[in-house]
Amino acid sequence: MDAPVDLIVGLGNPGPQYDRTRHNAGADFVTALAQQFGVALKQESKFPGFTARVIIGGRTLRLLIPSTFMNHSGRAVAPLAQFYSVAASNILVAHDELDLPPGTARLKIGGGHGGHNGLRDIISALGNQRDFARLRIGIGHPGLADDVAAYVLRKAPREEQLLIDASITNAIEVLPDAVNGNWNGAMKALHTNGTAL
Fold first, then answer.
1. CA–CA gap between residue 30 and residue 151 (Å, rounded)
2. Active-site residue 95, yes or no?
3. Fewer CB within 10 Å, N or C, the chain?
């Protein structure tokens, strides 16, 4: 896989009550990315979301945080991708990942939604295309399936949040390779450095 990235999407729920909750790890990643590269995310009238243009690794691309709720993320992603002629294979979606512990981030190309409602809606909105890349930001699992909904909508304890923030920082460091299509290099670097101790 050597497809470059033209669009980075960070998933979350809108509103102050969801700010910095576990489910908003993807949105936190894009927010941190915008701050790192000195660009402002602005409300976009054409699409339900906050967007910016940024240059990473010498490549100009777009950032998006949908302003829809998580399970309607595709309503922002698909229209923006269509408007700017961005293929699914040139999209990177950052999202929270129950199956990884806090402090761990991993890159993945394609696949299913794994029960994640944001990914599920994006896949559907893109016409069942699944070959977009994902940045999986570990938030840990509460242990019981019945506890997942409440768990993801709560803020992590300070110690866990520090680990999540560290994994976001690690992911930003490998992004220049990823956006230029050097996925093997980015994955290897993130696997080596992407677990906060």
1. 22
2. no
3. C
